[in-house]
Design brief:
This protein has 290 residues and is an alpha/beta fold. The chain has helices at residues 14-21, 27-44, 60-65, 100-103, 118-125, 133-143, 166-170, 192-196, 213-220, 241-249, 270-289; strands spanning 3-4, 68-78, 85-96, 112-116, 148-153, 177-183, 202-206, 225-231, 256-261.
Length: 290
């Protein structure tokens, strides 16, 4: 059977965005309404994990930095080749904050939380191609004892110069979490063997960006958990569940296999993100009877 995972983040609904921008008094009520709406959609789709959508985060870069103190917002910067921007975090002395405010929005045991990995944080904040050990240590302190799914986003490692100390940095992350290293926007096949060697339970792979993904996974095998990013998070076109299931089923799986978006749903409209969530559920249901 093939499972299904939600996107690690969802687009902020317009009404909530306006309330935040204008600092209205109804922010909390709107947030609770939309989180409930998202979770209800995911539950009805029978997804294997649930997320609050990170609706208060502007993006994964600043959102991950918000778990720490000792930084300020810098220049507005494009997030890879998307019409989507973030403020570069300029750090001074990073210190961990509490994760409890975040987890209050996700009280269920099969929650999915996401953070930016220590190499991509360095690359997207300072531009340095090196693991940010200050960030890795502070973030691991925040996440200490966390239980649930944890998507560690490391898109920058696909740009060349795979960091040899990334393995040691990931060892700091909690053993209690079900950790998936997430890569996207570029082909991953050339680095796949190195990805397999990282100390995480699974890999979340952008199969849309890599036409060789099936051949690579068939040749080299899989981790205990493999999330196949076959739902296009950057396109409003709706996938055919049968086509996606056929692609995912082509693998001779050696562990758990899940269909998933290839990235967060941040840049597509909120209603479309819910439709794609339902498609994920349809794929899972069809795999149960195939």
């Amino acid at each position: 059977m093939i499972g299904a995972l939600p996107a690690p983040s969802y687009p902020r609904p317009y009404a909530l965005g306006e309330a935040l921008r204008k600092k209205k008094s109804n922010v909390d009520s709107l947030l609770n309404r939309y989180v409930s709406d998202l979770v209800d959609t995911q539950r009805k789709a029978s997804l294997d994990a649930l997320t609050d959508g990170r609706l208060l985060w502007d993006n994964v870069v600043e959102g991950s930095a918000s778990l720490l103190s000792g930084w300020q917002k810098g220049d507005l910067t494009r997030f890879f080749d998307n019409n989507y921007f973030y403020r570069r975090p300029i750090k001074s002395q990073l210190r961990p904050l509490s994760l409890e405010p975040e987890l209050k929005l996700m009280p269920w045991p099969n929650r999915l939380f996401t953070v930016l990995g220590p190499f991509s944080f360095s690359k997207l904040s300072s531009g340095e191609s090196a693991v940010d050990w200050d960030y890795a240590r502070a973030l691991s302190a925040v996440l200490k004892g966390y239980e649930g799914w944890l998507a560690i986003q490391e898109p920058s490692i696909l740009e060349g110069g795979f960091p040899e100390d990334l393995k040691a940095a990931l060892e700091l992350f909690p053993k209690s979490a079900k950790k998936l290293l997430m890569v996207y926007f570029r082909p991953f096949s050339a680095l796949y063997e190195k990805l397999l060697d990282l100390p995480v339970e699974g890999l979340w792979l952008d199969c849309i960006a890599d036409p060789s993904w099936q051949a690579t996974l068939k040749e080299l095998g899989q981790k205990r958990i493999t999330a196949l990013g076959l739902i296009d998070a950057r396109n409003t076109k709706l996938e055919n569940p049968d086509d996606v299931l056929r692609a995912a089923s082509s693998l001779e799986a050696t562990g758990e296999v899940y269909v998933a978006p290839n990235w967060g749903f941040d840049i597509i409209p909120y209603p479309v993100s819910k439709q794609k969530t339902r498609i994920l559920g349809a794929i899972k249901r069809r795999s149960e009877v195939s």
